């Protein structure tokens, strides 16, 4: 009896293994239909699931050619379709901009990756011993030991909005003074060196850059990054022109959501941008890849390809995603195949899987011989 059960289990395991490797081979063996534009259009339609209300904007760059595709409309009342110049909140893609500002200041000699909070801020603010030793490298790579968001910040947000509406606009109730007050104790901080994704850590990095430079993060981003690249519609502050181009965001339930505002920690998620600006930004990283052996490591703020990305063949991809109350985003670059993709959605929904599939599409399909734009 036991022998029969063992044989049965062995057969099941063999069948499961065969099914896995068959599926894996099918996923990796993709026919190039030689019309990437058409394939992108179909993929974007899948992302929206036929819902015309929420706006989504996709940009794909591959080997010298860029293409944008949108679905949905600005709002329930405005039927106009968004385009590559429409404004979205980009959430945690802001971290890539903040880290790029850091690298600009490193090139200018203001700081190094090994500079500590104690060295950069200790003479102006009271810091706990744990905080003093944290390096900028640790803030960038999420190895500082700081929590994702300190409990005292969560408590303050709950007091303001209540548990039910904690995601209404959580960072709006925080200030730089709250950040400095927390650093006096660093309550809840773990030992440095272990990876734990921290919005607080990257938000703090933005404040550190402000302290050492004497300029606001938004001004630094414009001076060091956006102006040079022509990213004229990327900012933490909305101008009148940007406000007019801002699409309506929706929460995960499809209800209208207010814009998130950042009284503190805007370096972690406070930027607004367009698909055109963000694709330009991503192409900048691809250009850097020819100047360095490893420009897209964790020091750049990127996530490296994990098991899921590699399962779909995206082994050379660096990526990041983001989400705020009414928006979500996904960005990825493949320096080997010279590809960059950006997805901006006016709904708070996880875009990681759609992003993986879009990158797979961009890798395996080629443009038609005619111009796709």
Automatic annotation (TrEMBL):
Pfam families: Beta-lactamase (PF00144)
Residues of the signal peptide: none
Residue intervals of the Beta-lactamase-related domain: 58-349
InterPro entries: AmpC-like, Beta-lactam-related, Beta-lactam/transpept-like
Protein name: Beta-lactamase-related domain-containing protein
UniProt source species: Leucothrix arctica
């Amino acid at each position: 009896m036991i022998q029969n059960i063992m044989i049965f289990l062995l057969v099941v395991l063999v069948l499961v293994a065969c099914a896995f490797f068959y599926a894996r081979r099918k996923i990796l063996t993709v026919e190039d239909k030689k019309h990437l534009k058409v394939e992108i259009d179909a993929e974007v339609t899948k992302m929206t699931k036929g819902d015309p209300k929420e706006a989504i904007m996709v940009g794909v760059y591959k080997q010298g050619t860029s293409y944008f595709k949108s679905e949905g409309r600005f709002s329930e009342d405005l039927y106009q379709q968004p385009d590559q110049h429409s404004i979205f909140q980009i959430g945690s893609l802001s971290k890539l901009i903040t880290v790029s500002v850091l690298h600009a200041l490193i090139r200018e000699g203001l700081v190094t990756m090994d500079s500590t909070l104690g060295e950069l801020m200790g003479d102006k603010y009271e810091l706990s011993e744990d905080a003093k030793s944290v390096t900028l490298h640790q803030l960038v790579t999420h190895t500082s030991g700081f929590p994702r968001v300190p409990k005292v910040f969560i408590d303050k947000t709950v007091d303001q909005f209540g548990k039910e509406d904690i995601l209404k606009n959580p960072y709006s109730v925080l200030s730089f003074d709250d950040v400095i007050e927390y650093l006096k104790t660093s309550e809840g901080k773990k030992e440095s060196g272990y990876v734990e994704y921290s919005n607080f850590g990257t938000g703090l990095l933005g404040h550190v850059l402000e302290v050492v430079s004497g300029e606001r993060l938004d001004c630094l981003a414009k001076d060091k990054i956006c102006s040079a690249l022509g990213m004229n519609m990327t900012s933490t502050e909305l101008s009148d022109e940007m406000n007019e181009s801002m699409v309506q965001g929706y929460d995960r339930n499809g209800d209208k959501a207010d814009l998130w505002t950042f009284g503190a920690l805007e370096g972690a998620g406070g930027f607004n941008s367009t698909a055109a600006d963000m694709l330009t930004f991503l192409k900048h990283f691809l250009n850097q890849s020819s100047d360095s052996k490893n420009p897209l490591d964790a020091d750049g703020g990127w996530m490296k390809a994990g098991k899921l990305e590699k399962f779909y063949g995206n082994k050379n991809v660096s990526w990041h995603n983001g989400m705020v109350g009414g928006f979500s985003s996904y960005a990825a670059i493949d320096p080997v195949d010279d590809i960059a993709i950006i997805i901006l959605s006016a709904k708070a929904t996880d875009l990681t899987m759609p992003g993986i599939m879009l990158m797979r599409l961009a890798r395996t399909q080629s443009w038609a011989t005619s111009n796709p734009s």
